[in-house]
């Protein structure tokens, strides 16, 4: 980044792009810049904002934007849902935010092949609404406002991961604009391939640092015949985690298995999204899906395992509507937390993942340390993957409070790494976790990543400052 | 490869390595070289052999070998099961074959985490035999003699892929020796991660061209309670493929779904591996697994779909023993074909994959063209993934016959690519399919692969000549 664009370069590039793509294609409106450089639910925010926001309408326009930015050495930062949590779309070196707002179309649905071709700003929830008549759905379910482009970038997952896997299991191919504007397609459209390097899998999770994804072919799954939701309380979070572990080891094919602590249950009660008053205790949410008989069989198995681990109050959603309410309460956990935040206060929400057997240990210790902060803080987790989240409400303007929260989070992350886990199971590294990534993988492995980065983006223009810092 | 090692370099490197690792560590025995450079079931063989075979006993020894080879610019070719089909371990530029024969240990089984750490020469079948007491198994099932190292290299799969996915879905982390001898580990041991680039997924399927894998952590699955096998005949291969497509679209969770043509059924009859005399007609093999009730339910569904597609003779394996025999007949299809080969004749066995809806079309046309050759030739396929194999017995020494077979195969591969498919679903590119890969992906996408290759292996020493040719 030695020869980074200066103000004159930025101005020239912007006017060149406006001439080529139309005046509306590039915004330098202050509020627009703020929206694209700041996030109220990010663990970290910085003062620097992008210098402009581009609104391309096609892969060709993205290619033009990249060609110009490449020539002027202007950083390029892809933006879709804006719901990431580690400042993944922040602009520490200024540059051009590339917002896919106008690239939100489903381009083709191939029902018989069970796949769909979409642009980056298609929201996963909208997608599923759109195609439900086909009997198919896209099973990766991160935060409700996430869009496919960002989901590719962070290699996200969600509650369905225990059954269906993560983003990298559901992408068939990507159309990618490289740093210099070259357009490549990683694959054709076979569901399975062993032909050459797995570029699709490399771009997924690279947080826009290797290329700008403009088109995505996703695998779809068949909507299960029958779904059911059950909720069980446990005396301690350790008991709940131990029960989860047993369910996995017994091979019960749960569709999802989520843990929420007493605080999170209080949040559900407070936001009043369900008609029920929940016990404010460690609670497991199970989702079952399959055929009628299969679902009944699995519920029976889970019930007996839960009982053996001191589980009580085994409750079923009484109907489809309650199922939906229950599950959406779980899905909106972060939003519900945010709603309870005091004026001017912040949220720090982060995730780690560990080998499954270590989950009871890390949740127990981390929960205790978090409670010791004396703040409003909760744990919830995708226990089937050894993955859990902490969310802490705090006053970032109070240096002492901020330091305490920071220490608590960092200790949890270090603990996950010591347990042979990872500093993030599904949120990505962004700006926030670069130090942890070095601790997790070591400099030689990071060195391999840097070699790949430099090979594909020699001037480090693509989302610079994320995942890794520049060499030297 | 301008500054490739000459004979003197090879001699010096070999004596240096013998001094460091022991005389037995490096073999230059003629028969040993032949075994490591030639394969009787490869689609292509070349005259060049490796100049030596190294037998490392640890990751440290592999690192030493790489350090010396890197210094003398000697090609390095990893070798484990030797069962690949596209000359993936051939030695077109000579060099050092690195045989993992003495690295065949299970290093750790973590039952509670449902993972296992192994060395490259652990065979997948032996692995499953070894751990069956734990109630866990490794579900990726390629040819019976395949070993984990090679399975990582080719990103293989097998009959279980329709239910469990392919190799890249089952590897947690890899220990890799880079071209210059540096040892890296791609990940720690969480089942799920979003931390940095997916190096694990990049090394899988790179056929040893980016690094030498010396240690692999694999996910394990729980052995299903109940398994069943059923066999159905169809009047035409198109009917069979159409039934398979319907089974997928209905979301029936079959454990495997394999198609075999009339010729392949004749092979089973001839090799007499099962007690039954099979109808020599297009036949589908289904595997079901899960709970007792679930299996029964799925069998019922498949039976009704098969019937609607003119399926007849719905036969169940009567007991566990027949299940095993039936399934092993399917697994040993290639070996059975080889057993029927005339003295001095060859086999060309290759695979492609297409979007599922195109499978009936491509199988029908390809089968017709293959029959027109007038040779002994069969089709079998993992229809659940849109992936199928052709195996042709022929006389490679007859130039006219060889040309006819080559044209038939190339036409099938081109057809798969035109149908938005891939030139290989699970065998990899090796030496044999480099031209097809260019047709499939285009030069810009291959360019991205070459950039990555050059970044990690600047002298193109790792398995040179595979997947892609040197730049320029």
Automatic annotation (TrEMBL), chains A, B:
Catalytic activity: (R)-lactate + 2 Fe(III)-[cytochrome c] = 2 Fe(II)-[cytochrome c] + pyruvate + 2 H(+)
Keywords: FAD, Flavoprotein, Mitochondrion, Oxidoreductase, Transit peptide
Cofactors (names): FAD
Annotated compartments: Mitochondrion
Gene Ontology CC entries for this record: mitochondrion
Pfam families hit by this protein: FAD-oxidase_C, FAD_binding_4
Protein name (database record): D-lactate dehydrogenase (cytochrome)
